């Protein structure tokens, strides 16, 4: 009887430890989720208001933004390396190392922006070389000449976001991004259309609104970090001009594979749109709707995975082997739980979700609805695999493991994902739904490899405590 009681007590203590990880993961992750959704609202507002100008202006903005976002994604991926490195410093209680990592994260951002600005200043010429309409390319180039200055403040925000995440101060990220969404919408309306005495600047007005909003949010975060009672003692901006090249190159070494993975995933979905366009206009429209719904839901795993990455890094810094596992598996479990609920929604009311994006006065709306509903039936499983792969990758990043996960991602996305999509769509003849099955297969493969590697982290020598 005593042994039974002892075992029951040990099991209860173990369950309590796991439960104790759920609350801090949600506390850290939910504001990040909200910030991701608010950022998506900013981008959506830009698209909607520019769309009111006309098809040419919208086409120009879409072309310019798709070029800009590839560079932004890579830069954002590199700055994500600040999270595990900063978390490890916090776990080891070495504030000097934390300050060095964040300071060099800002240096990485600043030096990365210089060549990118030069490249983006030739947007018009680049688009013309890619075969785009010269007039649309001219409009896109004018828009980009202003929009490109958003790169520095928005990526600097990501470096500060890493610091705030490991310090478990993510609420400010939510509120500043929500405030930015409101300011951006107001400035868009005034500057694009020339209201309240402002000149009508059209596309350039939208770009100015974006630059102002990103700069404002960066300044707000700087003020918060320097005034907050607990954060200001780290003097993150102290001796900002002082170089620390070993830490700088450590961030670059950890970060470039992350940036490459993010860009590869973005190009994967761009490629899926190209293949869908080969099938027809209606499947492409339906694909866009289904992908937009999936992208909104995906913001939740993005936030939870960043929280998991930070908590894995903190446990790594403390030398807490059990805590590393709990942090990673908790983030994965919460992600799969949410995505499971999303999958049920996709299966049960897909027509309701798709209808939000359609005008049924258009005679083609019913056909697009039917195709998009079929895509969402596959997207339900797709979402589970997508959530698992970003969570698995982030768990490994928390350990400072980035190169092998890059290989996994390229293999999963491009060899398996693209290969299956093309084979099922055109070889087997499944059409558009075959592309979605292929994407799901690629993401499932990537998730399986990443989760297997995390599960075997000690045997593979990834944990060094």
From TrEMBL:
- Keyword RNA-binding assigned: no
Transmembrane annotation, as ranges? 58-83, 104-122, 142-160, 172-197, 203-226, 247-269, 289-308, 329-348, 368-385, 406-428, 434-455
Its membrane topology: Multi-pass membrane protein
Where is this protein localized, as stated in its record? Cell inner membrane
An individual GO BP term: monoatomic ion transport
Per its UniProt entry, which superkingdom is the organism in? Bacteria
Q: Which GO terms describe its cellular component?
A: plasma membrane
| GO MF annotations, alphabetized | antiporter activity; xenobiotic transmembrane transporter activity
The yes or no answer to whether the keyword Ion transport is present is: yes
List the InterPro entries hit by this protein, alphabetically: MATE_fam (IPR002528), MATE_MdtK (IPR050222), MdtK-like (IPR048279)
Lineage of the organism: Bacteria, Pseudomonadati, Pseudomonadota, Alphaproteobacteria, Rhodobacterales
Coiled coil (UniProt feature):
none
A Pfam match is MatE
UniProt KW keywords? Antiport, Cell membrane, Ion transport, Membrane, Transmembrane, Transmembrane helix, Transport
- What is this protein's name? Multidrug-efflux transporter
Q: Which organism is it from?
A: Polymorphum gilvum (strain LMG 25793 / CGMCC 1.9160 / SL003B-26A1)
């Amino acid at each position: 009887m005593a042994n039974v009681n002892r075992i029951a007590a040990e099991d209860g203590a173990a369950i309590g430890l796991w439960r104790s990880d759920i609350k801090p993961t949600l506390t850290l992750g939910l504001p990040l989720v909200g910030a991701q959704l608010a950022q998506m609202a900013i981008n959506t507002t830009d698209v909607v208001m520019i769309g009111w100008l006309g098809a040419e202006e919208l086409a120009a903005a879409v072309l310019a933004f798709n070029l800009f976002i590839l560079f932004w994604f890579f830069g954002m991926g590199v700055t994500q390396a600040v999270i595990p490195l900063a978390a490890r410093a916090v776990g080891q209680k070495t504030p000097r190392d934390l300050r060095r990592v964040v300071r060099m994260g800002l240096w990485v951002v600043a030096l990365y922006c210089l060549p990118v600005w030069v490249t983006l200043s030739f947007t018009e010429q680049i688009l013309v070389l890619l075969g785009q309409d010269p007039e649309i390319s001219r409009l896109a180039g004018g828009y980009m000449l202003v929009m490109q200055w958003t790169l520095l403040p928005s990526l600097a925000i990501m470096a500060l976001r890493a610091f705030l995440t490991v310090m478990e101060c993510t609420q400010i990220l939510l509120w500043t991004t929500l405030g930015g969404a409101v300011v951006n919408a107001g400035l868009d309306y005034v500057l694009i259309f020339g209201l309240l005495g402002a000149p009508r600047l059209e596309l350039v007005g939208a770009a100015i609104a974006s630059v102002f909003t990103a700069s404002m949010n960066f300044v707000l975060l700087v003020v918060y970090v320097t005034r907050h009672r607990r954060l200001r003692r780290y003097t993150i901006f102290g001796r900002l001009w002082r170089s620390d090249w070993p830490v700088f190159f450590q961030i670059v070494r950890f970060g470039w594979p992350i940036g490459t993975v993010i860009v590869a995933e973005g190009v994967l979905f761009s490629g899926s749109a190209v293949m869908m366009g080969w099938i027809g206009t209606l499947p492409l429209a339906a694909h866009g709707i289904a992908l937009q719904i999936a992208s909104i839901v995906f913001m939740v795993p993005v936030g939870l995975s960043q929280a998991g990455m930070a908590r894995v890094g903190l446990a790594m810094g403390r030398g807490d082997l059990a805590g590393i596992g709990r942090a990673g598996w908790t983030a994965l479990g919460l992600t799969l739980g949410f995505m499971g609920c999303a999958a049920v929604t996709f299966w049960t009311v897909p027509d309701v979700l798709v209808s939000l994006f359609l005008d049924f006065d258009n005679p083609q709306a019913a056909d697009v609805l039917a195709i998009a509903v079929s895509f969402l039936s596959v997207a339900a499983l797709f979402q589970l695999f997508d959530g698992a792969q970003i969570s698995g990758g982030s768990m490994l990043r928390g350990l400072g493991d980035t190169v092998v996960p890059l290989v996994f991602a390229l293999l999963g996305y491009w060899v398996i994902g693209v290969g299956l999509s093309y084979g099922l769509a055109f070889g087997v003849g499944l059409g558009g739904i075959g592309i979605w099955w292929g994407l799901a297969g690629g993401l499932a493969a990537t998730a399986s490899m990443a989760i297997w590697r995390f599960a075997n982290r000690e045997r593979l020598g990834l944990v060094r405590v």
